[in-house]
Design goal:
Blueprint: H1 17-33, E1 37-38, E2 44-46, H2 47-54, H3 59-64, E3 66-69, E4 75-78, H4 83-92, E5 102-111, E6 123-132, H5 137-153, E7 159-164, H6 171-183, H7 191-199, H8 210-215, H9 228-243, E8 249-250, E9 262-269, E10 278-284, H10 288-291, E11 299-305, H11 306-315, E12 328-332, H12 335-350, E13 355-357, H13 364-373, E14 378-382, H14 384-388, E15 391-396, E16 402-406, H15 411-425
Parallel strand pairs: 1-5, 7-8, 12-13, 12-14
Antiparallel strand pairs: 2-4, 3-4, 5-6, 6-11, 7-9, 9-10, 10-11, 14-15, 15-16
The structure holds adenosine-5'-triphosphate and magnesium ion.
The site of adenosine-5'-triphosphate has 18 residues, from strand 6, strand 10, strand 11 and helix 11.
Length: 426
């Protein structure tokens, strides 16, 4: 039986890698300009970290986490998102002591046991950022602006929706109002919503069933229940976004799937990926650092889904072209020539050229085919006769022009000659 990858787990093949690398480079470029530094955190953490931060009564913790008992009997989980781990590391290493506002980003795989489909995998990749140490509304706008700038540099157009989820002082009253509204609809809502309306009523508004959505049309929204401080904060975020000319829509029904959010939340949406409409999402988590045992520090962050970004780039034909082109293919004929070519190719590589050869010493025809397939710019032909004369042929693969090179015994010297000839021929 041939072995296959697990359902929802995907290999990223060499011809896909350039797009991934390009996407990562584009993200790093933007994040660095905004003052973010990279942090790498482990894939495995104690289950409790996620249960306590994301929330027990969320889809992620209730049914999507890869959790198991390790050989020491410890409950551990493969991270379903980045924020909890990054904040755990922030607290553990006392990073707040270094600067007033800590800006961190991380790029890597996340794991959720969901139903795999286009843009939805069980192992997927996120680029996530966290800014910890300020509750200023301008920070919210700055972070959203960074996400926006990144997508703009990718050439992707998406829409931005924002909302405020209030804070522990305004949410309880809103929760009561929502519960009262939902109580009257218990008989007609779906089973998930029935359950959620007791465990996590805000999540009800996020139900994917259109029947439920219709019923919730007139539901009370948190924006009408914000305390003055949260209302002011939200207005200031909007004003700052206006200042940066970032267009947004307010979606009072956006609740997000993680419990730690407070105040500003946002989603970056596309119409081009069917049900998988969110390419990125985030928000404030002002109580989370403290909740995880750290200092009382506010924070905000977001995560972008790399697979969804790549699907969008491919749809818009913006996937990076694989660039396998090599500088010099050394075609050697006969054992004596192959044995001279072997250290020569190594010397060319050591000097910074992309060089290749055929280790098996196949026919000239077959080696020229290989050179074509590798899109070699030059081929250095070492035949037995040329070798006997102390010569080699350097062929420009585009113009088909050939020139004869003197060919001594020292590979470093030969490499230098080839390189010099190639650079003058360019
Ligand atoms: P969705 O509503 O699509 O399930 P989410 O709200 O669960 O998304 P977040 O937890 O906010 O997503 O994660 C941020 C981003 O990570 C999403 O906007 C999406 O681009 C990506 N993402 C989340 N889950 C998956 C997945 N299973 N496969 C691929 N990408 C994902
Ligand atoms: Mg989800």
């Amino acid at each position: 039986m041939t072995m296959q990858a697990l359902k929802g787990f995907k290999d990223i093949l060499p011809d896909e890698s350039p797009t991934w690398q390009w996407l990562e480079a584009a993200a790093r470029s933007v994040f660095h300009r905004f003052g973010f530094g990279e942090i790498k955190v482990p894939i495995l953490e104690k289950t409790e970290l996620f249960a306590r931060s994301i929330g027990e009564a969320t889809d992620i913790v209730e049914k999507e986490m890869y959790t198991f008992t390790d050989r020491n009997g410890e409950q551990i989980t493969m991270r379903p998102e980045g924020t909890a781990s990054v904040l755990r590391a922030f607290i553990e290493h006392n990073l707040q002591a270094r600067q007033a506002l800590t800006r961190l980003y991380t790029i890597g795989p996340m794991f959720r046991h969901e139903r795999p489909q286009k843009g939805r995998l069980r192992q997927f990749h996120q680029m996530s950022v966290e800014a910890i140490g300020s509750d200023h509304p301008r920070l919210d706008a700055e972070i959203i602006a960074m996400a926006w700038q990144f997508l703009e540099e990718l050439g992707l157009s998406v829409s931005l929706q924002i909302n405020s989820l209030g804070c522990p002082s305004c949410r309880p009253a809103y929760r009561e109002a929502l519960l009262a509204f939902l109580a009257a609809r218990q008989d007609t809502m779906c089973d998930d919503c029935k359950r959620r309306s007791t465990t996590n009523p805000l999540r009800v508004l996020d139900c994917k069933s259109s029947h439920c959505q219709e019923q919730y049309q007139g539901a009370p929204v948190i924006l009408d229940h914000l305390c003055p401080a949260c209302a002011d904060h939200f207005s200031a975020v909007k004003a700052s976004l206006d200042q940066l000319a970032i267009p947004y829509g307010v979606n009072a029904f956006m609740v997000r799937g993680l419990d730690y959010y407070t105040r500003t939340t946002f989603e970056l949406l596309t119409g081009a990926l069917g049900a998988q409409s969110a390419v990125g999402a985030g928000g404030r988590y002002d109580g989370l650092v403290e909740q995880l045992g750290g200092p009382k520090l506010p924070g905000i962050g977001f995560a972008m889904g790399m697979e969804r970004l790549i699907l969008l780039l491919e749809q818009q034909n913006q996937a990076a072209i694989a660039a396998p082109a090599i500088d010099c293919f050394v075609a050697a004929l006969g054992e004596a020539a192959v044995s001279r070519a072997f250290p020569l190719v190594h010397a060319l590589r050591a000097q910074g050229l992309k060089a290749a050869m055929d280790l098996e010493g196949r026919s000239l025809k077959s080696q020229m085919k290989q050179a074509d397939r590798l899109q070699a710019r030059y081929t250095l032909i070492l035949g037995e006769e040329e070798l006997a004369r102390g010569e080699a042929l350097l062929r420009d693969m585009a113009s088909k022009k050939q020139q004869v090179l003197a060919f001594g015994n020292d590979p470093a010297m030969i490499a230098a000659t080839v390189m010099a000839t190639m650079s003058t021929a360019q």
